[in-house]
Structure formats: C-alpha cells, structure tokens
Design goal:
The chain is mainly alpha-helical. The chain has six helices and two strands; from the N terminus they run H-H-H-E-E-H-H-H. Helix 2 packs across helix 3 and helix 4 crosses helix 5.
C-alpha cells in the first residue's frame, strides 16, 4: 500500500464517538419529555404509541420498542388494551436524561482516546485531554438534567 493510500475499511480500528447517542436514545428522551409535558399529578393519563409517534414524527414500531425497553427498566408503566399506552412510572424530577440514555445505550463510559484502545503510546493525548473533557461535560449534563428540568419548555417536535 502506498503511503498516501488509506487502509481497507476492515483494517481500520473502530473509534468511539465523542457523543454516542443512537436514534433510539434520542427518540426515547423526546418521548419521555413528551410524557412529562402531558402528565397530570392527580390521575396518570396514558398516551398511545400512535399519539406519541405522531407528535414526534417517528415510526410507531421503532418507538414501541424504545418505550417497551424504558418500561422494562421501570421508567414507564405500560397498559394494554384499546385504552392502553404508556405513562411515567416516576415523577419527572426523578428521571434524568442519563437514566434514559443508560437504559437504551448501556453505561455511559468516559473515553480518553478517540480509538477504542490507544495506539500512539504517548503519555499525554495529542488532543490535550479534549475528548475526556467533552465526554465528562456531556455526562454531567445528562446526570443533572431531569425530565422536569425541560418539561413545559419549548416544544421542539412540531
């Protein structure tokens, strides 16, 4: 291989993203905020997958899988039947964005390198610690932001 050629794709080591957030996680966070915004303290109201998907302009099938996962870990309650749907299982101030993220993505790990395993052998990162700083800031934001923090704010879906 010539010096200026790139190695074949299969030979390139996978690099973790600085901000790893799948479409499912983004959808899950938006759905949870929707439920927090449309919640009644006196009597929990269920919202159908169709209703939430229409509001978010999302696939019902994809949203249903995301909501089922969030119900499985205890963030949502699901009700079956013609008047079934989903409602928050806890108060909005008890569910953080990090809770939703980790339910759908797994543990949020802080990376110090763009590669899954450092390749340069240097004691200090050539990025000057930027990767770790950014990921720490993102984690802190997700940890400190609850559904209540953003509920009743600007509606970004429609």
């Amino acid at each position: 291989m010539a010096e200026d050629e790139l190695p074949p794709k299969e030979d390139v080591k996978e690099m973790p993203n600085v901000l790893r957030m799948s479409e499912a996680t983004t959808l899950g966070i938006h759905a949870m905020v929707y439920l927090a915004n449309h919640r009644s303290d006196d009597k929990p109201k269920t919202h159908s997958v169709h209703e939430i998907a229409s509001h978010l302009n999302a696939s019902e099938a994809h949203l249903a899988k995301v909501l089922q996962r969030l119900a499985h870990v205890g963030h949502l309650r699901s009700m079956r039947g013609p008047k079934g749907g989903f409602t928050l299982a806890k108060k909005p101030n008890q569910i953080t964005f990090l809770d939703v993220y980790e339910a759908l993505e797994g543990p949020f790990e802080i990376n110090r390198c763009l590669f899954s395993a450092p390749i340069c052998g240097r004691a200090d990162c050539i990025m000057g610690g930027l990767i770790e700083k950014v990921e720490t800031e993102v984690r802190t934001y997700l940890e400190q932001t609850t559904l209540a923090t953003v509920a009743k704010g600007e509606d970004c879906a429609k």
